[in-house]
Amino acid sequence: MNNKNRICLWYEGDALEAAQFYAATFPDSAVQAVHHAPGDYPSGKEGDVLTVEFTVMGIPCIGLNGGPVFKHNESFSFQVSTEDQAETDRYWNAIVGNGGEESVCGWCKDKWGLSWQISPRVLTDAVASPDKAAAKRAFEAMMQMTKIDIAAIEAALKG
Fold first, then answer.
1. How many CB atoms lie within 10 A of CB 99?
2. DSSP β-bridge partners for residue 14
3. Could you tell me if 61 and 82 lie in one domain?
4. 3-class DSSP state of 77
């Protein structure tokens, strides 16, 4: 990977499994390289998978098997823009159905603790609407949801 900048994601030891899941789930995603530790380190042994180079929807990443010291939290998330309910459901169900968990307002976590925002374009357009009353209705509807329901957002926009 020749990118000067990429996102480094810390895993306890399953960076390869995570990268393979992302590559199988999202378009324009792939595992590019797997690098093994040249020697023992605090959370692993020589020969263990140390880093994994991968992309998630075109975003260059490196997964680091750094051990249990640091945990993912909501201060970092991937925000995936979807076009319709079927795409929204597909990504949401893939993440939550593979050991993840639901959160609120279109947020969920994968089984590795990484946060995802599955955000239909209708929602992001709605809350940015110049019609402030419509934007507020759509925002208030979203605040009641876990996975985003596009029909409910559209109904809120109409009032």
1. 11
2. none
3. no
4. strand
Strand, coil or helix: what is 142? helix
- The answer to whether the CB of 92 falls within 8 A of the CB of 108 is yes
Instruction: Please tell me the total count of domains within the chain.
Output: 2
Q: Express the helix, strand and coil content of the chain in percent, nearest 5 each.
A: 30, 30, 40
Would you say residue 72 lies in a domain? no
Is the Cβ–Cβ distance between 78 and 88 less than 8 Å?
no
- Domain housing 96: 77-158
For residue range 7-35, what is the model confidence (pLDDT) as tens digits? 999 999 999 999 999 999 999 999 999 99
- Site of tokens 């809350």: 127
Which whole number is the average pLDDT over 108-128?
Answer: 97
d(CA 114, CA 28): 19
pTM for the predicted model, two decimal places = 0.93
CATH number of the domain enclosing 38: 3.10.180.10
Shared domain check, 110 and 42: no
What is the tens place of the pLDDT at every residue in 54-68?
999 999 999 999 999
